[in-house]
Amino acid sequence: MARAVKKIILPVAGLGTRFLPATKAIPKEMLPVLDKPLIQYAVEEAVAAGIEDIILVTGRNKQVMEDHFDHAYELEKILQEKGKDEALDISRSMLLEEGRISYVRQMRPLGLGHAIWCARKLVGDAPFAVALPDDLIIGKPGTLKQMVDAYDDLGGNIIATMDVAREDTSKYGVITPGARSGNRVAVEGLVEKPHPNDAPSTQAVVGRYILQPEVMEHLNKKAIGAGGEIQLTDAMAELIGNQPFHALEFEGQRFDCGSKFGWLTANLTMATQDPVMADQVRKFINSQ
Ligand code: G1P
Fold it and tell me: Does pLDDT of 26 surpass 80?
């Protein structure tokens, strides 16, 4: 049986330039979709998948995320005094037991592969998950849970993929698909951000991964890939052929919340599914 996935790396060191000026002083991972910051969606998805240890790879100006996952004593005291129990519950319910979240700093913006490598000492020789909080996926069960279930059957490495328009392949990692069984597809090759003419398929990697620790050995080489960055995709590609490697065509709706359009549509979708707001929001949209 495959060794259980108990750790996750959440890379959160990115600059969030596509959201300036909003992200000048706050991390893009703290942007809310409705009332919850992106980072909290990712942590909740991980916890729901049975993952115990959460590792945030942070950078400069990201300290507010540590505060977010800590007690806010002043706020809690005031809410308690005012008898605002519901608000108090919301503020506290997201707290994880001490020691379950750790933070490691990526000191230079050298790419996603480098960010993952920065967490190597915390991961050790255990399999681990990765989630990119910008990629918000609404689905039940959550995508990480779907992936852990697939991993329990298949072992090795699992990446979440979805079909994209051919003209968009240059925004994603893209797989060369092999044998298919339902929504599980063997991965025979992986390339980062291929030009549409060169893309081996239109099955794109979205920001959810379950990886074996050997990927760190490849990241250790610090090979420079697409965009002049150290790419996770390139290190993963080296595992193919040596370890089982599958794509899971997950069930759920994915939003690129690193872009304004993606973030806005995530908000609208959530709002139209929210029991309190749905009618009001639909009425507003229809009136435009
Ligand atoms: C990263 C990965 C890419 C993946 C994408 C999903 O790219 O490098 O393989 O398809 O996330 O969102 P980025 O969006 O950071 O450029």
Answer: yes
pLDDT band for 60, please (50, 70, 90 cuts): confident
On whether residue 131 sits in a domain, the answer given is yes
**Cβ atoms 9, 54 nearer than 8 A:** no
Going by C-alpha positions, the residue among 248, 242, 25 that lies closest to residue 151 is: 248
| 121 C-alpha to ligand 1 centroid (Å) | 23
158-208 residue pLDDT tens: 999 999 999 999 999 999 999 999 999 999 999 999 999 999 999 999 999
Ligand 1 centre to CA of 275 (Å) is 33
Q: What angle do CA 179, 235, 181 make, to 5 degrees?
A: 15
Q: How many domains does the chain have?
A: 1
Mean pLDDT along residues 108-116:
96
- Separation of CA 65 and ligand 1 centre (Å): 22
Contact 2, 155 (CB under 8 A): yes
Q: What is the pLDDT of residue 30?
A: 95
Helix (H, G, I), strand (E, B) or coil at 287: coil
Q: Which residues line ligand 1 (CB under 6 A)?
A: 112, 132, 135, 172-173, 192, 204-207, 231-233
Nearest atom (ligand 1) to Cα of 226: 8
Phi first, then psi, for residue 151 (nearest 5°) are -65, -40
Confidence bin at 122 (pLDDT 50/70/90): very high
pLDDT of residue 188: 98
Task: Give a yes or no: residue 259 inside a domain.
Answer: yes
Quote the ligand 1 centre to 21 CA distance (angstroms): 22
Q: Tell me the CATH number at 150.
A: 3.90.550.10
Residue 1, in any domain of the structure = no
Residue range of the domain that includes 261: 7-287
